[in-house]
Write the structure tokens for this entry.
Amino acid sequence: MAQRDSSSPGLLCLVIATGFGTGYAPIASGTFGSLPGLLFIALLNPLGWIPAVAGTVVVTLVGIWAAERASRAWGQEDPGRVVADEIAGQMVTLLFVPITPWTLIAGFLLFRLFDIVKPPPARQFEKLHGGVGIMADDLMAGVYANLVLQLALYLM
């Protein structure tokens, strides 16, 4: 259990950490938390790979900061309402992938599958501390989902 920090994480931190409030969904907060990631990458990918990668890196770094602050303020290692990790992982899933309705749906489902199953080393990444630990397993799930999606597109 993380040590509770009595200071407030701040409104900006909460908005980022909870994925614009999607992390407060009463059920499946991670699933709802993935949706902003779909939107962000769908807007960035058509601009080219450099804006898409840069946007994903920025979301990841800001997510680490927000997840760290929120988890300390709430006294929990990986609070369920923190979904910045799902946003970044979902974005990784769709990097270098053409954005179509099919790829958005397939990428969403693949990311959720790998985020839930957490094949090695994703599960081991959860043991990292702070914001990095919160984010790392979802980023790895995004890499797995991206590879499977790339393979599916290649085979089609």
About this structure: The mean pLDDT is 93.
